[in-house]
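Help!! Second protein's tokens look totally different from the first
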Amino acid sequence: MLEIQHLTKVYEDGTRALHDIGFTVRDGEFLILIGLSGSGKSTLLRCINRLVEPTEGKVIWNGVDVTAASPRGLRQIRRNIGMIFQQFNLVKRSSVITNALTGRLGYLGDFTSMLGQFPKQDRLHAMASLERVGIREKAYNRADSLSGGQQQRVGIARALMQNPKLMLADEPVASLDPATSHSVLKYLEQLNKEDGITVICALHFLSLARRYGTRIIALKGGEIVFAGLPAEIDGARFRAIYGEEAIEVEIA
């Protein structure tokens, strides 16, 4: 179980991105974070694995205080937390399989990591991960030769290389068309249901959140303004989250 306790983040310029955030995530949930740009979704995700250091509060995962972990302890924790980024974060000039293999760097020694030498079993694992997301045949193509949706699937395969128990996805379909967005989210849904991986995913569109989320948390101005089931977000709650002038857009 993941516990977020009184989490606050204030950046050096004085921007308060999060204020006294608290909630729990049960193992096996597919939790969706929604809200406008600047609402705090990305900061919250990055505080969970300490890519961003919280100003106050705690992140406790399976009884371990992530916020208090030493550098060595944090490295151990991050092995089990996959991260999927909005802009894919691939090494464009490298092959697809090489990008997937970077998900194993946290398991290798520093010297091996520097040389980029991966054991045979890791290469087999990488091919299996690419197979799961439907791009095994692209393994030796350059990453920048792939479409946006295919690149995001490489990002998922890279995260799978960690054998994660928790997957954080930061606006993973923001730059993709509707059909490709569903394709990517269906892979995450499959991992959630078949492998029992807990997923926390930030999204803009409520229609996608309703389709894939088992629970929704909405942020506005760095605070939680809704936490509950997708079906509980009616017109009034939608306007409270997105503003009175907002119009709900369905992603077919």
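Here's the second one for comparison:
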Amino acid sequence: MKNAVLVKCRSFHYSSEGEEVLKKFDFNLEYGKVALLSGVSGCGKSTLLSLINGIIPRVTPGLFDGEILIDGENIKSKSMSQISRKVGSVLQNAESQIINQTVEDEIAFGCENFGFEPHFISSQIDKSCSLMQIQKEWKTRTLSGGQKQRVVTASTLAMNGDILIFDEPLANLDGEGAVILLKLLQGLAAKGKAVLLVEHRLDVALPYADIVWNLKDGRVEKVRNKNEFLKSQSDVIQSGGKPEVTVPRDTALLLTGIKKKFGSREILRGIDLEIKKGERILLTGENGCGKSTLMSIIARLLKADEGKISQYLNLDLNRRAGKKWFKTCGVVFQNPNYQLFAGSVRDEILFGAENKDYALCLADWFELTPLLDRHPHSLSEGQKRRLTVCSILAQKPKLLLLDEPTVGQDYHNLRNMIEIINHVHKEMQNTMITITHDIRCKKALCDREIKIEGGIIEKS
């Protein structure tokens, strides 16, 4: 098979005084193959992708010693425009790639920049929307994280590049959506395209990969035994057990007739739900079913069109959500960049903490202590996720809302995070509501599953 990408790396640093992120290795991506790149959070996977697609050093500065060949040509003197004509990229944070207000305009944008004919662009929009099961008239700002991931993927596919690289493409996709994407990429590889995935959900992605690479200690090496590697990385995490409280519990939240629309799209059609104090609730359902919308309404970050929520967690029942409420209710957003604002990891963790020593102890449990002096936005996406969870837990909220808390976590950090969340839950007896598509840990985070389908609760 012909090499689509060949990386001959001797070293990479983000600055002359920074640590060596990548060391000496050779890496290649072949046409006609799906390759999977694995490695622990923060090990440099996204850095390698950014070198291949030209983001480093053209957008993000860095010092690279080595050669990167695309179709046999060194890209050192190539512009981003030249590279992007051959390499299509779906970044880890899909939302950061969306700039237009409608799905149709978003998909058309890249095609127009490449100078495609209008009739071809129209055909590509229809084709990519059909492949990714999205509607071209949708408003991008109203979409769920998983739907935004599909939009960016559709936009990348529409540009018709022969080399496709994806950074955590399954992170916010439901099970069906993940399989649809992986089968699609497998089919594209069979037609001669080169596909590279960076992914932590190995249990889902690895069976579709022809070649597996692992990045460890700055070096990339090919995995020889795919099955053994999968087994070591994808065991299902066992449940943390049922709450020890056996007496009848008081109500924490009572939702009645909750409805919400975005334009003409009816997301929630009447949610009725009672949640008890100390319960661990798991919200499930396909992408776009309204899970994050419902969580935002519970958090008082979004107002329902109809219905009522009664909460019995503090005395501030009738006033607008303020400081007292957000001491009671801790929210971990789907996108960690929305809630990281401090100048250092340490300041982020301590900002709302009730107890400084407890907060720094949590930081140690989350393996964030070596990063305390770093700026939060300099971290990898997986590290940012651990930081946001740690910061919210440090506030000791009575109501803990977690929207995709495990995104970007390798198996070690995933297991560690689940153990910490369940330990804090047992210690604080908080009420916990979680959204996740990660089948490795779903059961370990809940006592009761609530599935939303068609805007209503299917089962409870």
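Reply: Different proteins will give different token patterns, so don't panic. The two ends are 51 Å apart (CA to CA).
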